[in-house]
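Quick one - first record:
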Amino acid sequence: MIFPVLFWLVVLSAVGYLAWRRSPTQQARSAGERTLAERYARGEITEDELRLRRGVLRRR
């Protein structure tokens, strides 16, 4: 009896997670963090600026 319930709980959780990952807000946040990482790698911003700006992105 418990295994079917656990199975559906896992399936629904996976579907919810995938829907959240594909949301426009999450995609924009990921793109912003990638851009910051690229700028940091090129030396355009310092580590402190990277952490500050990443923190601002994650708060939204």
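second record:
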Amino acid sequence: MEWLSILPPLVAITVVLWRKEVILALFLAIFTSEALLLLGGGGEVSLGTPLFGLLASLERIISIFTDMGNSRILMFSLMVGALLAFIRVSGGVTAMVELLVGSGLARSRRSVGLLTSLTGVVVFIESNLSVLTAGILARGLFDKFSMSRARLAYIIDSTSAPICILILLNGWGAYILALLSGYELDGSAAEILWNTVPLNFYALVTLGIVFYTIIADKTHGPMTDAEALAQKLDTDPAHEYPPTQARFMVIPLLTMVGGMIAFMFWTGNGVLADGSGSKSVLYATALACLAAYGMMLWTRKFSHIKLVEIGFGGMGELLPLVTIVLFSLALGASVRELGTGVFIAGLVGDYLPLVLIVPMLFVAGALMSFTTGTSWGTFAILIPIGVPLIQTLGLPPSLVLSAILGGGIFGDHCSPISDTTAVSALASGCDLLEHVKTQLPYALAAGGITLVLYVIASALMI
């Protein structure tokens, strides 16, 4: 029966490809998982099974709100809509675009791409904040230079997670250190983690491909079609709202970034890496919304009632994507209980040659992350599997850990049911399925190169 645990993600992916409808696909996957859990609990198939499965699915979705971290992510996603609406309607976006173009910082497609990716690199504290900051800053610039929103989504998505897993002075690093604590290894957990940086081939290769596409100004696969369509459309932001002052965009953005750093220190009792990412990003976004609201109210061009209308209108625009994030979290919780990740991890096998164990851990991490939609959940399952392999077989700790981390990010980049993928689409204003379709060839290319590199590294280091 264990093999049935992969059925829910297969249902989601099949429906997404067949019907091009993500919300329906995620709900059917949740329903499938909950029905399997009912049957696995000793229940028998009956006429009431679909009804009980439906009720269990609704309860699973509701249970997401009992986790305060999940509730913060959903509130943050909604408030992003209000923030985007405020800075757009205020004329701050168009003013910022004109300022960057006039200053020469954004004088070409290449410089726009570099500015976007470097923004993501600088804001390495939290992946959602990195994606959001770069997405908000670059939306108008991409429109100005007739660059597709799909390309923007790819750049911010493929910059944020690799940077966060390489720099590690953030919640990612603290989380992985917590998973490693309690194991007796040669060297401290921090030393092993820092040594993964040059061995995290997927993150390094992904960043290399991102900068190649920017500097060479070349696109491949479905991204080329998206770029061609964007160049035919007139999406200049100046045609939407007339420019006012760039500060209507700059001050809320700086408030959000500065607030994030301050709240990470505050929630971590003075230690940045120990801070709560979900709390900090929610509080920082709320402060940014308050700053934008206050500035627009101060101009006396907007009344309180009008600003409330603008804010809720912005939230409404993002409601479908927020629903996708909610269903993704619910599906992840359900398949964790079903044991999908553990089953896929077991596919690595017990009789592999030593030189293939590390590459197969990378593949297992990719499959788990792809089918469950979460890289952090993948780390939580695979690290307890990988550490005993290190201890019993004498494998290089940092090499094994880097393969697990890279595999988790690889699968997350490819997965249409990942909440990270949905947030990247949200931040860039790109359709979710278009983002998945256009990013997939780049992620698969990076994954293929990484697999070869892990085989070579294993041959040299083991």
